[in-house]
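User: Hey, quick favor. My workstation is busy. Could you predict this chain's structure for me?
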Amino acid sequence: MDEITATMERPARRARGDRAQRRSTGSAALGVPYITRNIPTYDILGEESLEKIEKTAERILAEIGIDFRDDPAALDLWRKAGATIDGLRVRFEPGMLLELCATAPQTFTQHARNPANNVEIGGKNVVFSPAYGSPFVMDLDKGRRYGTLEDFQNFIKLAQSSPWLHHSGGTICEPVDVAVNKRHLDMVFSHIKYSDRAFMGSITAEDRAEDSIEMARLLFGEAFVDQHCVILGNVNVNSPLVWDGTMTKSLRAYARANQAAVIVPFILGGAMGPVTNAGAIAQSFAETLAGCALTQLERKGAPVIFGNFLSSMSLRSGSPTFGTPEPAIGSMVVGQLARRAKLPLRCAGNFSNSKLPDGQAMVEGTMSMLSAVHCGANFILHSAGFLDGLLAMSYEKFMMDIDLCGALHSYLAGVVVDDNTLAMDAFEEVGPGSHFLGCAHTLRNYQTAFWDSSLSDNEPFEKWSEEGGSTDYATRANRAWKKALADYEAPPLDIAIEDALKDYVTRKKGGVDDAWY
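Assistant: No problem, here it is.
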């Protein structure tokens, strides 16, 4: 037994060292650029129920309509397309929006500055991206505080360093130490400089969306950008049933440049939508289709992502709740509707209302993340870091969540059935009553047989308490993010491109006064 154990430990130590080395290097050496799922989606509703939801959405669109505010150009596009316009209210004949959406691609490539990190969005592909939009950050050392540009860049570096994320994300946290009207320039530049993965741009004003796209043109070249998706813009419906001009102008800017808008209603059941799942899903379907169709009116064939963010609320207090079962199961239906509409899907993510990276955070986060996986989401924003109902981005939760993302790589791979995995040679070698630890089949497969967590402690209690210091998961995550930042190395960026980007940022910042609202 000692000889077998020694045989196993020598390559195991080397394997752990190799994995640690891979984790500390640039993303080109890490993992896969995206996941191709090998398990089916979980389709919970039959044809009759799906048709009822779709027909309810069509009634909402035809009988109630959607307001399009502060964007006369959007109203003109709808008028020319044959919609009924009454002031700001737009109504649509049944089938009109799905017909318009038919020109959008079912799958598309978002290009990264390192082509090895291009991501395929749609079909059976799954892309994990960090959480988005928190004004606060937190860690176990300094507690909760407003995010800064340094924090923003830290999270880009952590994402870049992980083999389990595929995308650099967007507004990972708000850098509130930079003026509101200028911070988008620093954010896009930081994504380009500190990561070589695909990224997102600004949507908080049309000119900020256009700045983001122009910076992408400096990176990739104007002609390339006109024909290829290189940047995403995540836009939200002002539910219920309102598209405001800030969002429609930004989504049209992305579509006009042939870049992908991610169209997302944010529905808190009982506040911005019905408390019942079916009604909220019908509402979100109507709102999302309107945004997706508008991108096609702006530029036929532009890529677009069908998005959804269902959530619940405490009906006792009115507080939003996240990671709850009703939105999780509702996401399964959203996935079915998106596939029927033949559009790539962004849905769910790792959501939690917990104020700390604790058991509540992981229970809620795992429920919502599994709903994203099983509903068939292609682009999973909020895969890591989300705490406090998205008010805070947590360093420790980020590391805990990317560890879960690692597990989901193996989960989505499904079960391979072939001569090797059926292991008949192992049964022949081991026979009855013996063990498989040292057999040839185990030695041949041990490095790839099981996912290997970088944070979990699987040692006996005595070793955990005496040698490991009795550390919990969050404490180990605290050490992990500090080590990842210490080991981080920026991916190479062409000096001429970096200088052009810096010059653009300097000129744009110098042309306007700071605005803090």
